[in-house]
Each structure stands twice: as C-alpha cells, then as structure tokens.
Design a protein that fits this description.
Layout (H helix, E strand, L loop, with lengths): L7 E5 L8 E5 L6 E4 L5 E7 L2 E6 L10 E4 L3 E2 L3 E8 L6 E8 L2 E10 L6 E7 L6 E6 L12 E2 L1 E2 L7 E5 L15 E6 L3 E5 L7 E7 L14 E14 L3 E3 L5 E21 L12 E7 L1
Parallel strand pairs: 7-14
Antiparallel strand pairs: 1-2, 2-3, 3-4, 4-5, 6-8, 8-11, 9-10, 9-12, 12-13, 15-17, 16-21, 17-21, 18-21, 18-22, 19-20, 19-21
Length: about 290
C-alpha cells in the first residue's frame, strides 16, 4: 500500500509577503495557504525554495449601470427619453450630456426606483453634445457611472420661403368693338409661406409685357391697372398701372402664411382692332 504523509506547520513567509505568515505543508514541495499582512487569506506556492503570495478574496463588483435613449439624435432643444438600469435602488442619479469625455450643459436629475431603474426626459440644447450617460454621486466615475449612449444634435431646419399661385393663366373679360372700355379680371390667389428661422421679410412684385395680338400686332393705348389686396401677415402694395416699364409691388410681409390677389382692369381705346391679345405677367418673390 502506497501512502504519503503531510505535516502541517506554521512558517514565516518570504519577503514576497512582508510581515505575513503562511500555512505550509511538508513534503513534495506542494502548495500552501498563507495569511497576508492585512489578515486577508492569500494563496502561496513555493518555487525554487521561495514562497510567492497570491491574494485571494471576493471578486470585484461588476458595474452594470447602462442607459438607452429613445432617439439617436434630434434638433437642438429636442427632449430625448433616457432609460437607465443597474443603479443603486433609491440613489440620486444625474443624467448628463457629454462631448467626448467633457460634460455639456444638458443635465437632469432623478431617483432610481426600487429596482435600480431610472426613466427621465433630457432636453438636449447644447449642440456640442455627442452622447448621454448617467451616474451616481457628485461626478461620473467608472465605478458608479454608465458608458455614454451616442446622440447626434442635428442642424435646425432653416425653413423656406415659397410662392404658389392658383392657376397659370389670367383671363380678362371681353370689350365690345368700337366703343372701347374696360375688361375686368383677377391675377388669381397667390400664397406666400415663410417658415424661415430668425425672421426676415419678403416682397412680391409683378411685371407685365406689352399686349400683342395676331401677327404680333400690338394694342396701342391699352392700359392695365391693378388694385392689390392681401390677408395674413402682409401689407398690400399701392394701386396703379402695370407695364413693362418697371416692377410694381403687390405686397410685403414676413413670417407665416399670406394670400395675395389683385383686381385687374384692362382699358382699351375705341376701335381697337378685334382679336385676342396676350401679355406675360411675371410675379417675383424677393427675400430681404
């Protein structure tokens, strides 16, 4: 029958563990258990006649704190929903924007519930913010804070200035041959929408070519006049003649939606040659 004998003795540990004592076994050069200078258990092994002390103790606690975002980005001022888990139940938690490793001005505080969860909305107004994290205590630390969740602040929509017109043609009334007179009409409703950020003004002008008929014959003495009107945030231009000599102001306005129209009157002299006459009316929207 084969057997071995181990004698357990107390021995001082080599300088690898100053001031410590070791629990060693004799024979076979086997491993021994040691007590370090702080009283914490340590594992000691002998190699080449010298003892090495390896600390043994409870593993470090894992940091399970993390946050998720309800959106990956938005315009400045957008409120993003932040959900956090893994925090100490009842702890005060700071949710904060980050630009790389530096904090930004975006910040809100909340309390973790009984499960260690946090749910809050953070207004992201700082355009430097590239991520959102949360932490316990006065400042973020790797032990008590989450990693940042990416967040992108997009450029705000600059808005637009647009013009639309009801219909592409203006038809005037007929004038009896011989007597001359006035042919009434309207330019058709023009809608101006101004959604630009930061304000600004606009002006709507119109120019008119001369009237021409069959064989490019003109209509000598024909005079077109108009009386502008508008609704919304605008001011109508003055009544007057329209023609190729210059642009006439139909309306001026600013932010919002405005509708512009103008009553037209074409006055023809007596015995204007009969026929159909055409002219081109051009509306131009100016921004300033």
């Amino acid at each position: 029958m084969a057997w071995s004998r181990a004698v357990v003795t107390w021995a001082m540990v080599t300088p690898h563990a100053p001031g410590g004592t070791a629990l060693a076994s004799e024979g076979g050069g086997g491993a021994s258990a040691a007590v370090g200078p702080s009283g914490a258990p340590a594992a000691a092994s002998e190699a080449g006649g010298r003892a090495c002390v390896l600390p043994v103790g409870p593993p470090a606690l894992m940091n399970l704190r993390r946050v998720t975002l309800g959106a990956a980005g938005g315009e400045p001022g957008a409120r993003v929903r932040v959900t956090g888990v893994g925090f100490t139940p009842g702890a005060a938690v700071t949710v904060e924007g980050r630009a790389a490793t530096a904090p930004t001005a975006d910040r809100v505080r909340a309390a973790a519930d009984a499960r260690g969860a946090v749910a809050v909305k953070l207004a992201v107004t700082d355009r430097a913010t590239t991520g959102v994290l949360a932490y316990e205590g006065p400042a973020w630390s790797p032990q008590r804070g989450s990693a940042p969740a990416p967040y992108a602040v997009s450029a705000p929509d600059p808005g637009t200035l647009t013009l639309t017109q009801a219909g592409a043609a203006v038809t005037l009334g007929a004038v009896a041959y011989g007597g001359g007179g006035a042919a009434p009409g309207r330019i058709g409703t023009v809608t101006v929408k101004d959604t630009r950020i930061g304000g600004g003004r606009w002006q709507l002008t119109a120019t008119l070519t001369g009237f021409t008929g069959r064989d490019a014959a003109g209509a000598p003495g024909a005079v077109l006049s108009w009386t502008p009107s508008c609704r919304g945030g605008c001011v109508p231009g003055p009544a007057g003649r329209a023609g190729p000599e210059g642009a006439a102001v139909l309306a001026t306005g600013g932010a919002g939606t405005a509708t512009v129209d103008a009553a037209l009157t074409l006055t023809l002299p007596a015995y204007t040659p009969p026929g159909t006459y055409r002219a081109v009316l051009t509306l131009t929207l100016h921004s300033f």
